[in-house]
UniProtKB/TrEMBL annotation:
Stored InterPro entries: 3'-5'_exonuclease_dom, Exo_C, HRDC-like_sf, HRDC_dom, HRDC_dom_sf, RNase_D-like, RNaseH-like_sf, RNaseH_sf
Domain HRDC: 240-320
Name listed for the protein in its UniProt record: Ribonuclease D
Region annotated Disordered, chain positions: 1-33, 317-339
Highest taxon above the source species: Bacteria
PANTHER family named among the record's database cross-references: RIBONUCLEASE D (PTHR47649:SF1)
Organism from which the protein derives: Cellulomonas shaoxiangyii
Length: 420
């Protein structure tokens, strides 16, 4: 389970103990012990046979090496199923797990934050027929803390340690303590699923969850960002196109080096170093390494590479410099500009946000899970004409809203548009 934070995804803070939570019983050892790592075709064949003959849903998890390696490759796959036990599989030694996936056709896979793990599992040719996402279920239930440890504590009263969540899972051999942690991550996931499913049914949200799980399962891979360098931390402090060009050139040089060396880009060159170079505009390697963020041994060793990127940016003609505004997108402008550019759209957005916030509070579902914020903004900026309930519902469906969301918000949004 990777803890890197991103919108709608649990991060390290979510795993911290809640001082107000009820006492929990520590979960320290897997019931069947820690199994050996499966890293040979023969051992994999035995796992395939055992899990194919197992019963009930299968708990699935995957570990990556985010912050250590380039990309989001999976370095350990964990599974547990009734009558099959737990399996820890090395996907580096066994990159093709299609036989295991085939053995589980029709079986429900239980994952926590499935959108994080499924892309890597697909690279191993593992594709579920259907899923149950315990993190997403917790969100739909309005649980305040949705990290795995918090959900396990809430549903089962068990304490799940998370001290190894951010380690380098590309390490070989994997330490015994890490393997114990990995096995525990799937130890009680099916039991958690059962409690959450009962709560969803009690709250009338079982069908909502089914639709959400299916949307996650079928979600296409995200499209590459047009200008990924614009996500560099601290970029907002730079406004001049020339300085932005320095960050862009350094970002591209860093990405190439990181990919070739299979190292996380942030370990090759920190974001702070790129911003510092853009602020200083060094003309020589000596000036570059005099900057504090470039004082590290590894950074200094590649100083010529970084200075050449700076030199390229400094030599660019004005016509080749990036715009401070960023690339033109197909979506609406930032909401802060709406009042001036389109006052009617600004009123629609305020009214629509009030509707969604009210429904969020009534149903105890986070706003972002009730309706994707970007879709709401697009609808308010360019509403259908006429903006009646049927047209609003059609626009929501076209934008990817699930049927349960359409049923909840379409009529209310149409009313809000008419009143604004």
């Amino acid at each position: 389970m990777d803890p890197d934070a991103s919108p709608g995804v649990p991060g390290p803070d979510d795993e911290r103990p809640d001082p107000d939570a009820r006492p929990v019983v520590p979960l320290l050892e897997p019931a069947d012990g820690v199994p050996p790592v499966v890293d040979t075709p023969r051992a994999l064949a035995a796992v395939v046979e055992a899990f194919g003959a197992g019963t009930g849903p299968v708990a699935v998890d995957a570990e990556r090496a985010s912050g250590y390696r380039y990309g989001q490759r999976t370095y350990l796959v964990q599974l547990r199923r009734e009558d099959a036990g737990t399996a820890l599989i090395d996907p580096v030694a066994l990159p093709d797990l299609s036989a295991l996936s085939d053995a589980l056709v029709g079986v429900e896979w239980v994952l926590h934050a499935a959108s994080q793990d499924l892309p890597g599992l697909v690279e191993q040719n593992m594709r579920p027929s259907r899923i149950f996402d315990t993190e997403l279920a917790a969100r739909l239930l309005g649980m305040e803390r949705v990290g795995l440890a918090a959900v396990v504590a809430d549903t089962l009263g068990l304490g799940l340690a998370k001290e190894h969540s951010a380690v380098d899972w590309s390490t070989r051999p994997l330490p015994a303590e890490w393997l114990r942690y990995a096995a525990l991550d799937v130890e009680v996931l099916v039991e958690v699923r059962q409690v959450l499913a009962e709560r969803l049914a009690e709250q009338g949200k079982a069908e909502w969850a089914r639709q959400e799980f299916e949307a996650v399962r079928l979600a296409p891979p995200p499209a590459p960002r047009a200008e990924p360098w614009r996500r560099v931390s601290g970029l907002h402090t730079l406004r001049e196109p020339r300085r932005l060009a320095v960050v862009r050139e350094l970002f591209e040089a860093r990405d190439k080096s990181a990919r070739e060396r299979d190292i996380s880009p942030g370990r090759v060159l920190p974001d702070a170093a790129m911003v510092a170079a853009a602020q200083a505009l060094p003309r020589t390697v000596g000036q570059l390494v005099a900057l504090p963020p470039f004082a590290g041994k590894g950074t200094r060793r590649r100083a010529a590479l970084w200075q050449s990127a700076v030199d390229r940016a400094l030599a660019l003609p004005d016509s080749a410099l990036p715009s401070p505004r960023g690339p033109a997108g197909d979506g609406p402008p930032p909401p802060r500009a709406w009042a001036e550019r389109d006052p009617a759209a600004a009123r629609r957005l305020a009214a629509a946000r009030a509707v969604v916030t009210g429904l969020s509070e009534h149903w105890s579902v986070p706003v972002e899970n009730l309706l994707q914020p970007d879709l709401l903004r697009r609808l308010c900026w360019s509403p259908p004409q006429p903006a009646d309930a049927d047209a609003v519902a059609a626009a929501l469906r076209a934008g990817g809203a699930r049927e349960w969301q359409v049923e909840l918000v379409a009529d209310r949004l149409a009313e809000a548009f008419a009143a604004s």
